[in-house]
Design a protein that fits this description.
By secondary structure, the protein is an all-alpha fold. The chain has one domain. 54% of the residues lie in helices and 0% in strands. It has helices at 21-33, 38-56, 64-75, 82-89. Helix 1 (21-33) packs across helix 2 (38-56). The chain is flat.
């Protein structure tokens, strides 16, 4: 008798991670604080870090003309506007 095929999305992989007891304890404390299991917490944190890494590594490919326009806009100094002038007049938060 043939075995029923499992849907691809139903499969789960196993990942083993070696870490110090101190690291595990910190992760466990954070997971409890977030009311999540260690696995849920670690998957969420890893997924967030993966997304951040991928977003930082995006490559936009454009033609020469588009790149030249972008470079001109990017390299140009900001136009002095009322909002910019007001911002530059404000003291930094640590100076207040």
């Amino acid at each position: 008798m043939a075995q029923p095929k499992r849907r691809e999305s139903a499969r789960r992989g196993l990942v083993n991670i070696r870490m110090s007891r101190e690291d595990r304890d910190v992760i466990d404390r954070a997971a409890r604080t977030a009311r999540k299991t260690r696995t849920e917490f670690m998957i969420e944190a890893a997924r967030r870090a993966a997304h951040d890494t991928l977003l930082d590594a995006n490559l936009l490919v454009v033609d020469r003309g588009t790149f030249a326009r972008f470079k001109t806009l990017f390299d140009a100094p900001p136009r002095p506007s009322d909002r910019l002038k007001e911002l530059l007049r404000q003291k930094a938060p640590w100076e207040r």
